[in-house]
């Protein structure tokens, strides 16, 4: 499978810059693989496709305010720092990306906030853009974290080309977000409102939770035509015993298991027994799914409409069938569906 197969024409104005007024009122395109039919619904109509004892698997990661703006010592040059992950709590070490990177060297100090509220020192180069920063902060850890996050901004992806607004703090987070560590939201989960979850629960649908701390690798461009040569960034995942039991019971009873989003699908497919059952796991995954691929766990999935050439689109095409998914994307572009993080949703059954 080649990179060029995942090109389609997406006009800039079709990328959603704002979320729908209500979480569960985005459009929902339903792809039925058995009948090869496409339906146009609203997201809250999801209820019509699930029954008692079906299982929905959610990613309960929580996004933190990862984007900081500061200044370089001496020159005062403006710098953007994107926090990727905490490396060492005691030493206040963080793995970050800096932009522009070319002028930031080991030993440089960076200043953040009014009156230089927070100072960081560059102590290592990890990649061309990546750096390790040590934040110089004398107070207790909780105070440091509070200061750091008060300076941070909701890390909307760059293709949402507008300033961050107060609504983003709430809307770029699922309502079931629990375990902090993501720098991007698991977007399929953003469509679920409390009301919709309650109605699904009343219907008898079971909810299972896994954790994948979404990294920037989701937005990293693929720069090789031969997809077998692309390497995914590693992301941290947790699959607990309870999740495995719920999913595996549903599989044994021939119930629906729905992966809510590509991050859930990647997590599930990263820890599968030889019999095709989910196994508990805590660690890292760099699994890259593209067509053709044999899925083991989920038999339905919810996902957003992804950008051309993205690894997310590749996974969806592997699950829904390449020709069918690309046909659906063509239908979406002609029917005013909204694309990207804040866009509309697709259910593949």
The proportion of residues forming helix, as a percent range, comes to: 10-25%
Write down how many β-strands occur, each being a DSSP E stretch of 2 or more residues: 17
> What would CATH call the architecture of the largest domain?
3-Layer(aba) Sandwich
Q: Name the assembly state.
A: single chain
Q: How many strands, what sense, and barrel or not for the largest sheet?
A: 9 strands, mixed
Give the C-alpha Rg: 21 Å
Uncertain segments are none
CATH topology of the largest domain, anyone? QueA-like
Q: Helical stretch count?
A: 7
Tell me what portion of residues adopts beta-strand conformation: 25-35%
Describe the protein in words.
The chain is of the alpha/beta class and 349 residues long. It has two domains: 3-63 and 168-348, QueA-like (3-Layer(aba) Sandwich), CATH 3.40.1780.10; 67-151, Thrombin, subunit H. It has seven helices and 17 strands. The chain has helices at 141-151, 166-171, 194-203, 241-252, 262-269, 311-320, 322-334, and strands spanning 27-32, 37-42, 55-59, 61-63, 67-72, 78-88, 93-99, 109-112, 118-125, 130-136, 179-182, 206-212, 235-239, 257-260, 281-285, 300-304, 345-348. The strands form three sheets. The chain has a nine-stranded mixed sheet, covered by helices on one side. The protein has a six-stranded antiparallel barrel with strand order 5-6-7-10-9-8. A hairpin with a 5-residue loop joins strand 5 and strand 6. The protein is globular and about 65 Å long. The relative contact order is 0.21.
